[in-house]
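Expect chain and fold; see below:
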Amino acid sequence: MTTSATLRARAEDLASPLPPLLADAQHLAQSVLLGAHGRRRAGQGDEFWQYRPAMVGDEARNVDWRRSGRSDAHFVREKEWQAAQSVLIWVDNARSMSFTSGRNVPQKGDRARLLAMAAAILLIHGGERVGLSGFGLPPRAGPVQLLRLASALGEAEDVPDYGTPEARGMLPRSRALFVSDFLGDMEPVEAALTKAADRGVKGALVQVLDPEEEAFPFDGRTIFESMGGSMRHETLKAGDLRDRYLARLAERKDRLRTLCRVTGWQYECHHTGEPPTPALLWLYRALEHVQ
């Protein structure tokens, strides 16, 4: 039998690493939370959506006689569709995500976790079920799930230099969110989105980049090294690489956009030197309109 002291100790152990991420995400989510989360289409639910003219086949019990009495036509009162959906989130925790170009710029991984956690808060607030792919955390609803999500997002094991999207556990016709710098091998990304599309899963892909990765402000003698140290390149003329680097980055972005367009996903690039609110607002709207 679990004693109150043991239960309290276990609860404190669970909650101890959560406040910074959870508090920051709650604060960020509040800046975007503009009202009740809705699907804006007719279906099962409790909230009124719209009146529409009655059509052949509509049952008499569905006619709103009070509204119909104010005109010469019959009207049906429709409710907003509110069935909960499942959303799986994948956040890249590879070593490349720990890069930052300065003390005043957050690490890519920190910003990715913040955006993912804030999105989860908004989704769960709207009654959705949210889980993490690859963590053995299936979609669930309710505030307790937020604690589970924050705890799982804070875990870090032996990871590679670049992350691989995880598509396991995606339910047919559910939604998903992938957050990464997407600077590694593109084949796993294509495979994951293709697998998701085959299951009818649609979602949003957010590419998180540091300002230096976007601008390539290097010149002269420079040593480029991956965060895990597996790759290293030294050059005396870094400036000569700028045009080729920017062209390849633009090509990668275009490849991601095309992949999202083909699979029915939506793409956004976010820089860690910018405030997170616009990115979360885009993400909120993107997931809101996924059907």
Observations:
- The two ends are 46 Å apart (CA to CA).
- The chain has nine helices and ten strands.
- Residues 48-79 form one domain.
- The first strand starts at residue 48 and ends at 53.
